[in-house]
């Protein structure tokens, strides 16, 4: 080991690790070298020594390894700690007795805050103690936040682990839907696109059930931690690594609310362009997903079209997916596509296609006859395999309605002379036997032919000949008695015992002798009982009880070490277990935005260079990693020092880094001198190194040596430090909170920020219609006055009784305080991108409630909340009203926040109906047509419905539509057509609605480039019209 | 059943045998020519293991796993191994691997630790194990020094794990190739059944220091679906649709994208084909003409048509007005290599096919795969607007190249 040459040394390591198990004594000689290496000042040498040492599979050195791992786990260098994490499973597989001690090490490493360690330690956790889910609680939020910066392989492991974790800790977000599913015998999904499939009666029934379930429904509020996980994994769908994409996809499939699962479809379809091995695995998973959630892959139908160059396995999987995706609306396209496949040279594939056609025919009643005719045509195909497969499928189809198709049965009877494939012959014979009453003349003749060739047939054919004979004997014994006896005699001496056995059994049953038992009376019932039609099912049905993306799912069998995906808990376990002592999640909602950005920031951050948790990409660009990594590898350097210097340099360089942004900032500064200092201060507060000691006290446990990564929590706690200050200011001057919010806005909408010179000015929105209560001009007028939050005071609001109000807080849960909210549909003047929500407080208790305010909003990324001014007091029995603004980012995700009184806090959530996410715009007919022309294709969603008698006039329709959604009517020349237009509040996307009426029928068309909004809106309007 | 019981028993004994256990490299003839074990040694006849393999360049990379692990994890890793070998030695073949077996072993040792991927970034690996080049191997044999880096790698430790530190070039240059492939299925009558564009931006960045690049497009909204190299800041893309990144050193795929609205996908050529087989007599006729359709005024180059013929076709007797054709008698693949497409004089291939007599005529007409290239054009219309560099003082040389290729471009007949 004294070799100097690094090259040779490495190869010696390789050799040593490979043969240590076989040559234990020799291997032991090397141990002391590694022990020395563990103390080396160079972190890389320490790591590599540990790596080799732990790879030597010799039981005697277990104590040495244990010691080395423990020491390395508290090493200064994250790289060495990572190596320690890797060593844990090695030691565990060598000596499982060490489990308890190893768990301690894992627990310690789980608390590590560096991305380098996270992946490896979770991997160790999964191997050693996957059942100790309790170890994750405290680290859950940290892992979620670090996830995006962990290397690819670690991401996969962490995501899979978190999926399991979430299943044990959170409630099923689809709880209400799954209730419905149970009641639905057909097991169809409730994805919007599926719904039309059912016949009208069904639909009504469903609606009723739905309504019932809605009534029963407990309000489901997603745990913010659950939301955090979904939010932080979503960007990883864009990863180049197929395994990461798949991991996120399965996480969404297993954990996300149904409406959100759709996002994974695009990413999965992307993977289909990868290597064929990847394609194979992805298609398997897609096939499973399409059974439960057909809707999400429907837009990508064409991506599953088969090319003649695809390998057979891929072809068959694609076929499976296409079959699963088939419904009334696309079946004709799919069948046309299948038509071309049937001509393929790949016969296995052709056979699979025929089966697929059969499945489409059984699933979709409308095309059954078409499919059947098509298949019958295939019977004249020259390829025997094709014919045989068709026969088998036709047999299954015919069973569904045999009486209609006796000509097909006749046709098939003729085929028996030509077809040689045993399965097909057997199928034909079975059909003739089963439906011999429909073909009374042909059946005996077929039996005659078969009797002739009996001895040369395959076993399955022989069994069916016996069957046919028995059935004919029972129905038409005059013609077939002799034939039957002949066949039975032949079978009696057959080589196959099954056939001999069957012959004996049938003879006893059907031929009356004096000895024959009681059963023979029932022979006819036994043989000619009505058989239920077979259900052609996808082989992928129910595969989703395996975690998607897992090996077990691929094999459809449990692989060793597979961790079962737990069922959702009935009631959520205590969410507070995930709280960490350090107040990581500060309470002030105004700052929420900024923090959120920071959480996501490390990697994909906007480069305005605030200190993010891990600083990976950005800090590099600013401070240059030369010095950084230098200090990291220099063990003697004090870590805290390097940390500070790094930060210093960062904030310095931030200034000259991003020129345009800098300018922008200047611009703002000039326009808004008073706010300027505020914002400077608040952004600087995070950077001030002297604030550090404060937080240090709070998190004493944090090792000083933690490098840049520990900043994440620190900067967060910095924020919470500064929080009270800001709140104080807010009370004095409501403007003070503005800069913060402003900053948030700048982040979310870059283009806007230049226009957005003053917070009080609503974003210029020429689309605002006269329909609005408060025209933009009025707002501008008011702007001159020192317009503070009191514009929102109840006085200016005319509470409209027609508005539908929703319960925010029930009086029992609110301990006397009840809150209802409704969407007032007025522009929210402080910020035009927000939806204004009117809250109606009632104090039902006997005591006063004071200091009502909003806190701790936990929102989807991009969402923002402008809380209502604090309500000082609400006397017992009193009611009051307040308005708050929420930017829902054009999604129907709920905004969760805490409603606080002086003594209590209530977690509440506001979920907007899709119709409230828009504001009406005025348009002329021509404009409307022009815009509509640009929003065709995928952006157009059309639904048909039947109108009730009482809402066939235009007036009723207009009223219902405008109640359902915040739309303004567009004049329309054509009769029997109503048009409406709006723009989404945040994204400003046009939403165009057309309702065309044809007597009873109506057709609702929505054009919107946000497909989700379009789809949901159509549903909403349908519901409104159908009421 | 028995199997299941056994594996239950086994599980009691084999604890913690996760992730990738061993790797075997198998050549086309089925011989194992290299094996590497990251845990205890596995014998070549292995019961109770799961095998996952990928096929790359006539090699099978087969990994052995003993328990649950996401299959894509393994597949992706195996492809990464093949990519790395290709990156190091130019190609991934049996001979190359045998010639460089020491380096391959070293690489495998670094890439996986106890079955869990350790360093898979090419930049990090190259710092630890230098790729061979002729000059160095001469110097090495003369001086007796080694291939393994003398300095310890820092990439693992840096916050930008994909980039080496201390990169220095005399010529600082950054090239981006926007390469688009058209995947399409055209049916018999010439209508497009399905068309989409797969794009990739391949970058070759040789810049000193720690440059921070920003690449913006004229029309980023074209892109339907994107995936990025880990270096790209996703939030910036979300917010502004620009690519902001610290590039790895050397060649890498910056992003891949996808344009799938069919009306946006221009089909550059049309194909008029008539392939028919006659019932009587053992022959068939073939007549193919190709013409330009939507080429945006550029020349179509490297045009070729590949037709896998039915097995009963014995030979082809054809004349081509442009280019030349070959018919492989063993695989029955007809390749017509046209070259440049001249819009004035359309290339045509015409003649007879002789078919094995006595067998029924082939039922299906074979489908044609088209190959083509169009230089200096991204068919989706995507345009790079500008490339800015922050963080370094020098002026880099920048270049963008566009190329359109046919991907899986299929004409059904």
Automatic annotation (TrEMBL), chain A:
Protein origin, superkingdom: Eukaryota
UniProt region (Disordered), positions on chain: 182-215, 565-768
Name this polypeptide is given: AP-3 complex subunit beta
Organism annotation: Knipowitschia caucasica
Record bears the keyword Transmembrane helix: no
Bias (Low complexity) ranges: 615-640
Pfam families from the UniProt entry: Adaptin_N, AP3B1_C, AP3B1_C_2
Gene Ontology CC: one annotated term: AP-3 adaptor complex
Cellular localization per UniProt: Cytoplasmic vesicle, Clathrin-coated vesicle membrane; Golgi apparatus
Compositional bias of kind Acidic residues: 193-205, 641-657, 701-723
GO biological process, one term: intracellular protein transport
InterPro entries: AP3_beta (IPR026740), AP3B1/2_C (IPR056314), AP3B_C (IPR029390), AP_beta (IPR026739), ARM-like (IPR011989), ARM-type_fold (IPR016024), Clathrin/coatomer_adapt-like_N (IPR002553), Clathrin_app_Ig-like_sf (IPR013041)
Known function: Subunit of non-clathrin- and clathrin-associated adaptor protein complex 3 (AP-3) that plays a role in protein sorting in the late-Golgi/trans-Golgi network (TGN) and/or endosomes. The AP complexes mediate both the recruitment of clathrin to membranes and the recognition of sorting signals within the cytosolic tails of transmembrane cargo molecules. AP-3 appears to be involved in the sorting of a subset of transmembrane proteins targeted to lysosomes and lysosome-related organelles.
Keywords linked to the UniProt accession: Cytoplasmic vesicle, Golgi apparatus, Membrane, Phosphoprotein, Protein transport, Transport
Family indicated by similarity: Belongs to the adaptor complexes large subunit family.
Composition-biased stretches (Basic and acidic residues): 206-215, 589-603, 658-688, 733-753
Domain AP-3 complex subunit beta C-terminal: 747-893
Membrane topology: Peripheral membrane protein
UniProtKB/TrEMBL annotation, chain B:
Entry's transmembrane regions: none
GO CC list: clathrin adaptor complex; endomembrane system
Keyword Membrane listed: yes
InterPro entries in UniProt: Adaptor_comp_med_subunit (IPR050431), AP2_Mu_C_sf (IPR036168), Clathrin_mu (IPR001392), Clathrin_mu_CS (IPR018240), Longin-like_dom_sf (IPR011012), MHD (IPR028565)
UniProt keyword list: Membrane, Protein transport, Transport
Cell compartments where the protein resides: Endomembrane system
Hydrolase found in the keyword field: no
GO BP annotation list: intracellular protein transport; vesicle-mediated transport
MHD domain span: 171-412
CDD domains: AP3_Mu_N (cd14837)
Pfam families, alphabetized: Adap_comp_sub (PF00928)
Family: Belongs to the adaptor complexes medium subunit family.
Name of the molecule in the record: MHD domain-containing protein
Lineage: Eukaryota, Metazoa, Chordata, Craniata, Vertebrata
């Amino acid at each position: 080991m004294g070799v100097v040459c690094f090259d040779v040394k490495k190869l010696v390591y390789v050799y040593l690790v490979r043969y240590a198990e076989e040559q234990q004594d020799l291997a032991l000689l090397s141990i002391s070298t590694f022990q020395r290496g563990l103390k080396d000042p160079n972190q890389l040498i320490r790591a590599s020594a540990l790596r080799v040492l732990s790879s030597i599979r010799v039981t005697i050195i277990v104590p040495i390894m244990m010691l080395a791992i423990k020491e390395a786990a508290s090493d200064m260098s994250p790289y060495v700690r990572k190596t320690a994490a890797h060593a844990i499973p090695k030691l565990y597989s060598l000596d499982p007795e060490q489990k308890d001690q190893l768990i301690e090490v894992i627990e310690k490493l789980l608390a590590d805050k560096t991305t380098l360690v996270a992946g490896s330690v979770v991997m160790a956790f999964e191997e050693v103690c996957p059942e100790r889910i309790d170890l994750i609680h405290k680290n859950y939020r940290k892992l979620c936040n670090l996830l995006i910066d962990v290397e690819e392989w670690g991401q996969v492991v962490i995501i899979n682990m978190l999926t399991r974790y979430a299943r044990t800790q959170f409630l099923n977000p689809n709880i209400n839907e799954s209730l419905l599913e149970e009641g639905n015998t057909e097991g169809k999904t409730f994805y919007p696109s599926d719904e039309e499939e059912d016949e009208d009666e069904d639909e009504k029934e469903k609606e009723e059930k739905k309504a019932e379930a809605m009534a029963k429904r407990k309000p489901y509020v997603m745990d913010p931690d659950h939301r955090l996980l979904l939010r932080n994994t979503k960007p990883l769908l864009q990863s180049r690594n197929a395994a990461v994409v798949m991991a996120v996809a399965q996480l969404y499939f297993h954990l996300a609310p149904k409406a959100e699962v759709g996002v994974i479809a695009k990413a999965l379809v992307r993977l289909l362009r990868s290597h064929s091995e990847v394609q194979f695995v992805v298609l398997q998973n897609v096939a499973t997903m399409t059974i439960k959630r057909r809707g999400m892959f429907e837009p990508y139908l064409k991506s599953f079209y088969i090319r003649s160059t695809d390998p057979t396995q891929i072809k068959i999987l694609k076929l499976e997916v296409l079959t699963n995706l088939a419904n009334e609306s696309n079946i004709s396209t799919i069948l046309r596509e299948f038509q071309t496949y049937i001509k393929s040279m790949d016969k296995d594939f052709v056979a699979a296609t025929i089966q697929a056609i059969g499945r489409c025919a059984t699933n979709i009643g409308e095309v059954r006859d078409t499919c059947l005719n098509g298949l019958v045509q295939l019977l004249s195909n020259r390829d025997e395999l094709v014919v045989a497969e068709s026969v088998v499928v036709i047999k299954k189809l015919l069973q569904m309605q045999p009486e209609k198709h006796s000509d097909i049965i006749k046709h098939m009877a003729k085929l028996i002379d030509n077809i040689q494939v045993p399965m097909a012959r057997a199928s034909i014979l079975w059909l003739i036997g089963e439906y011999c009453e429909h073909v009374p003349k042909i059946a005996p003749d077929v039996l005659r032919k078969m009797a002739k060739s009996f001895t040369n047939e395959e076993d399955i054919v022989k069994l069916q000949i016996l069957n046919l004979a028995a059935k004919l004997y029972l129905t038409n014994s005059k013609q077939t008695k002799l034939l039957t006896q002949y066949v039975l005699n032949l079978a009696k001496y057959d080589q196959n015992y099954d056939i001999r056995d069957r012959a004996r059994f049938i003879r006893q049953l059907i031929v009356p002798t004096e000895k024959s038992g009681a059963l023979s009376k029932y022979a006819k019932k036994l043989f000619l009982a009505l058989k239920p039609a077979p259900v052609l099912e996808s082989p992928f049905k129910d595969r989703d009880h395996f975690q998607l993306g897992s090996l077990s799912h691929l094999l459809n069998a449990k692989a060793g070490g597979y961790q079962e995906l737990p069922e959702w808990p009935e009631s959520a376990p205590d969410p507070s277990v995930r709280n960490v002592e350090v107040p990581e999640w500060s309470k002030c909602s105004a700052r929420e935005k900024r923090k959120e950005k920071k959480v996501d920031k490390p990697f994909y951050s906007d480069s305005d260079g605030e200190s993010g948790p891990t600083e990976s990409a950005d800090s590099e660009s600013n401070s240059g990693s030369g010095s950084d990594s230098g200090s990291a590898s220099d063990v003697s350097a004090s870590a805290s020092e390097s940390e500070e210097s790094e930060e210093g340099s960062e904030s310095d360089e931030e200034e000259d880094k991003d020129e345009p942004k800098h300018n922008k900032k200047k611009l703002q500064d000039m326009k808004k001198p008073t706010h300027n200092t505020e914002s400077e201060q608040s952004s600087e507060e995070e950077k001030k190194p002297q604030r550090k000691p404060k937080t240090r006290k709070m998190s004493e446990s944090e090792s000083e040596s933690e490098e840049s990564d520990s900043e994440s929590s620190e900067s967060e706690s910095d924020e919470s430090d500064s929080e009270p200050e800001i709140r104080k200011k807010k009370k004095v001057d409501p403007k003070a909170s503005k800069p913060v919010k402003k900053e948030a806005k700048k982040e979310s909408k870059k283009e806007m920020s230049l226009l957005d010179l003053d917070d009080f000015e609503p974003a210029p929105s020429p689309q605002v219609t006269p329909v609005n209560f408060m025209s933009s001009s009025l707002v501008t007028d008011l702007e001159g006055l020192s317009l503070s939050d009191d514009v929102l005071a109840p006085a200016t609001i005319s509470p409209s009784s027609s508005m539908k109000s929703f319960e925010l807080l029930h009086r029992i849960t609110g301990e006397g305080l009840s809150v209802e909210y409704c969407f007032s549909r007025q522009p929210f003047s402080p910020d035009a991108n927000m939806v204004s929500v009117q809250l109606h407080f009632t104090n039902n208790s006997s005591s006063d409630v004071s200091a009502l305010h909003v806190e701790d909003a936990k929102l989807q990324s991009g969402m923002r909340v402008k809380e209502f001014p604090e309500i000082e007091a609400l006397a017992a029995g009193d009611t009051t009203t307040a308005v708050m603004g929420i930017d829902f980012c054009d999604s129907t995700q709920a905004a969760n926040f805490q409603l606080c009184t002086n003594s209590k806090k209530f977690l509440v959530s506001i979920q907007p109906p899709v119709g409230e996410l828009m504001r009406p715009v005025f348009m002329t007919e021509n404009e409307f047509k022009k815009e509509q022309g640009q929003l065709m294709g995928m952006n157009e969603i059309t639904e048909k419905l039947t109108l009730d008698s009482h809402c066939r006039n235009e007036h009723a329709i207009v009223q219902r539509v405008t109640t359902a959604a915040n739309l303004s009517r567009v004049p329309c020349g054509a009769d029997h057509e109503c048009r409406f237009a709006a723009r989404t509040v945040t994204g400003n996307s046009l939403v165009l609605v057309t309702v065309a009426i044809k007597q009873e029928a109506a057709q609702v068309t929505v054009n919107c480039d946000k497909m989700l909004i379009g789809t949901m809106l159509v549903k909403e309007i349908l519901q409104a019209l159908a009421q | 059943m028995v199997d299941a019981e056994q594996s239950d028993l086994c599980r009691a004994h084999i604890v913690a045998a996760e992730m990738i256990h061993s790797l075997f490299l198998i050549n086309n003839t089925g011989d194992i020519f290299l094996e590497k074990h990251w845990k205890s040694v596995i014998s070549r006849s292995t019961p109770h293991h799961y095998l996952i393999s990928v096929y790359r360049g006539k090699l099978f990379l087969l990994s052995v796993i003993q328990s649950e692990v996401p299959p894509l994890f393994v597949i992706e890793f195996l492809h990464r191994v093949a990519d790395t070998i290709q990156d190091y030695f130019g190609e991934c073949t049996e001979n190359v691997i045998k010639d460089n077996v020491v380096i391959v072993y070293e690489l495998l040792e670094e890439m996986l630790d106890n079955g869990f991927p350790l360093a898979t970034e090419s930049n990090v690996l190259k710092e630890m194990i230098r790729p061979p080049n002729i000059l160095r191997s001469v110097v090495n044999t003369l001086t007796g020094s080694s291939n393994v880096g003398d300095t310890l790698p820092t990439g693992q430790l840096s916050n930008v794990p994909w980039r080496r530190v201390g990169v220095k070039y005399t010529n600082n240059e950054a090239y981006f190739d926007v390469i688009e492939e058209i995947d399409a299925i055209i049916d018999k009558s010439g209508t497009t059944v399905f068309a989409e564009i797969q794009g990739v931006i391949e970058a070759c960045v040789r810049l000193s220091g720690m440059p921070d690049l920003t690449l913006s497009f004229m029309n980023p909204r074209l892109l339907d679906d994107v995936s990025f190299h880990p270096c790209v800041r996703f939030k910036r893309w979300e917010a502004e649709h620009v690519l902001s990144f610290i590039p790895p050193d050397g060649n890498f795929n910056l992003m891949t994208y996808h344009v799938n609205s069919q009306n946006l996908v221009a089909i550059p050529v049309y194909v008029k084909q008539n392939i028919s087989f006659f019932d009587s007599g053992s022959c068939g006729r073939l007549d193919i003409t190709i013409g330009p359709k939507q080429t945006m005024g550029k020349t179509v180059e490297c045009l070729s048509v590949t037709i896998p013929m039915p097995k009963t076709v014995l030979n082809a007797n054809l004349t081509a007005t442009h280019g030349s054709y070959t018919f492989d008698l063993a695989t029955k693949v007809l390749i017509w290599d046209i070259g440049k497409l001249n819009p004035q004089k359309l290339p045509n291939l015409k003649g007879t096919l002789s078919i094995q007599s006595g067998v029924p005529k082939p039922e299906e007409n074979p489908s044609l795969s088209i190959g083509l290239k169009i230089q200096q054009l991204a068919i989706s219309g995507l345009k790079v607007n500008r490339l800015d560099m922050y963080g370094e003082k020098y002026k880099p040389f920048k270049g963008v190249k566009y190329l359109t290729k046919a991907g899986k471009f299929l004409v059904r007949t």
